[in-house]
Task: inverse folding
């Protein structure tokens, strides 16, 4: 039961991390556009109305959220398998630890 909980917490935190990274990237891409549109809308609007820019913003926000969730799931599954399943490590907060032997102390 605790291993399943650990897996779901790990996956949820991975998704949260990638959503935050996606929003930071979205912010960094959007700030120059907003700066130019705010400074001289008619010059930089590319002939688009404000509602069309808002539609593009909403569309790109949804794309960034979906891509971030997909990346979060992918990297969460990849690193969970890599760290905990292939290496044989026990999840940290289960309270179980491996006994150290003379062989593991020498490494």
Result:
């Amino acid at each position: 039961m605790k291993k399943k909980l650990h897996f779901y917490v790990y996956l949820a935190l991975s998704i949260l991390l990638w959503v935050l990274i996606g929003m930071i990237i979205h912010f960094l891409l959007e700030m120059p556009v907003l700066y130019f549109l705010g400074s001289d809308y008619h010059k930089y609007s590319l002939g688009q109305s404000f509602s069309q820019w808002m539609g593009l913003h909403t569309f790109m926000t949804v794309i960034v959220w979906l891509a971030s969730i997909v990346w979060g799931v992918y990297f969460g599954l990849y690193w969970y398998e890599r760290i905990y399943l292939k290496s044989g490590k026990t999840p940290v907060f289960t309270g179980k630890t491996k006994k150290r032997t003379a062989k593991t102390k020498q490494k």
